[in-house]
Amino acid sequence: MSARALSESSFASDLLSLTKPRLSGLVIATAAGGMWLAPGELTVPRILVTLLATAGTVGAANALNCYWERESDRFMARTANRPLPSGRMEPGVALGFGLALAALSLPALALGANLLTAGLGLVALLSYVLAYTPLKARTSASMLVGAVPGALPPLMGWTAVTGQIDAGGYVLFAILFLWQIPHSIAIGLFRQDEYAAAGLKTVPLERGEDSSRLQIVLYLVALVPMTLLPFQLRIAGAWYLAAAVVLGLSFLGLGATGLFRSLGRPWARQTFLFSLLYLAGLFAALMLDSGGHG
Description:
By secondary structure, this protein is mainly alpha-helical. 78% of the residues lie in helices and 0% in strands. α6 runs antiparallel to α7, α7 runs antiparallel to α13 and α12 runs antiparallel to α13.
């Protein structure tokens, strides 16, 4: 490979990294889940356009987040090698890339799905970039703000099929919203030093470890019954219900163990990793035992 080709490949790789592909992949999976579970006609063109446009919208939000946080990212091990803090890319390039992605993706959502879905995408983009991102350096309450755009993709998938927001869509939104809180607090617990060095506010840094462990359990207590509602609404069947109960009680048991034993960072990391398995398992069960397109 020539030096020029290698350089172009590296630049393309850096552009892709601005979209945070692993995080975006998780978001797209939940959007796909929302589409699959929603009642109504599901066509291949609508699926492809909706998911690609949602990916573009999420990627735009992440790229603009990278632009905004390019200075604080220097102080965190997991972000220091990103294109902007490492100096491999000019900030203006990332800004232009993020804005261009948004300019392409939001109209595509409106045309490929509907105006409601595009509107939700716009809310997700603006709340993530203009509210959550700047608040991270000011208050740990930013976590609640950031949970809103994080919970919107499954609702967007739902509205892309139904054209309206109803009980099923609200439940999917609520599950993702509640799940993000223990997930985020767990990250904050085992990465306290990095967040402190970057000047970002988290629940562990502002409220302490005891309060953090308690909040994890309280949000899990709210999450578990919420995950039972898809069965009540006949979105999913008895196999899903059994999976939701087992996964939920396991997650709650892990959280309660940390609370009552005052466990530290190894437990917090374990809780974070389990939260990912939990979400994957829950959505897999939803989609395999759905009353929609399954």
